[in-house]
């Protein structure tokens, strides 16, 4: 295991005019670590995720990422082309709505294959074989490979989006409410799948969710956000079993027991 | 041989912000150490703070004051102030924990629930499963259950899965939170034998056992938790 983090975030803030998106967020993320960012709607967690994944530029603060050559690069000083390349190869982004992360009018196989071609794969047979392999890893039958995601259920679309993101062997994956809007039984299957993939591939991930059960299942560490600020952070089970901040106590005490 | 676990002057309280910020003191001045190869038992009535002490030692509860010094990775770590990443490494390598209840994960089989801590320590999955099988057999869990997720198991069956998960690794420190509470006499004896084997292997054990017979059988020494009472303040 390496002793250097994969991502270093320091005093990151994003303001929309005078309104706070997120403010003064600082943390390190190590390879293989899953960090959950929780909070209610409007707490700034999605703004933070978008800044980290460079889909938004922050108002101030820095984030540096350890490239495959071991060198740290300041994300917001990279050129647009460099950032796009990172996004296509070393990173993944799983959207809450699969339609935002998939191309709905090309086949499932092409959705997965496209990311491979983006990193320079050109051999059709190899791309198709890899696509088949990935579809099976996310439990989509091979005979659906030529279907468009439009014909898939919500849970299948989400699994396809995950395959599309992981096929290039990224080291860091951003997830925005990956199980939002799915039935609980579908959620359980997806969570189990994500858990297995993250462990097997040694991925680092930042998962935004408002669902504390999802956070407990997927993450080792957790940040709780309110009004754009991190109000508590630490080991996921520590934050959930011994919440210290008033807002975290409110969140934890609001979970419905079944 | 250095002492694997030294606890000094640890204090813990809960502040209930949703109840006008009242403070509930749990324990204070907690000090003891555990030697390799001994099994110490936390004694005292319910509510005295026994589980809270175990949870602090596992990093599951935050510590207000004091130190929890653990022999980890050829060095000493203070768990009371360690970073989350360090606590995770200590859990992987040094401190094992058998909780009172199994927290189940949907769709993961009992066999893999038990094998998981070994896989996390870098053992081959198949080798880990093999050890998992032999431990589950030793604990008399019917073989037909091994491939099923434990969510629908009975209390006693879940607890045996939990025990197997805690005992499968060679952590030098093992914390046990009432591992025998819902077991029948035959399986209690299995757990007593497992604990004896850990002691013989030089593991430092700290446990909570309400069952008198089990406590008699495993305890080298009782640590009276009422001595660490923080003096409950009326709410």
UniProtKB/TrEMBL annotation, chain A:
InterPro entries from the UniProt entry: AAA+_ATPase (IPR003593), ABC_transporter-like_ATP-bd (IPR003439), ABC_transporter-like_CS (IPR017871), P-loop_NTPase (IPR027417), PhnK (IPR012700)
Pfam families: ABC_tran
Assigned keywords, A-Z: ATP-binding, Lyase, Nucleotide-binding
Protein name: Phosphonate C-P lyase system protein PhnK
Matches recorded under Gene3D superfamilies: P-loop containing nucleotide triphosphate hydrolases (3.40.50.300)
NCBIfam families from the UniProt entry: CP_lyasePhnK
GO molecular function ontology, one term from the record: ATP hydrolysis activity
Ranges of residues in domain ABC transporter: 7-252
SMART domains for this protein: AAA
An annotated GO BP: organic phosphonate catabolic process
Lineage: Bacteria, Pseudomonadati, Pseudomonadota, Alphaproteobacteria, Hyphomicrobiales
Origin superkingdom: Bacteria
Similarity comment text for this entry: Belongs to the ABC transporter superfamily.
Gene symbol of the encoding locus: phnK
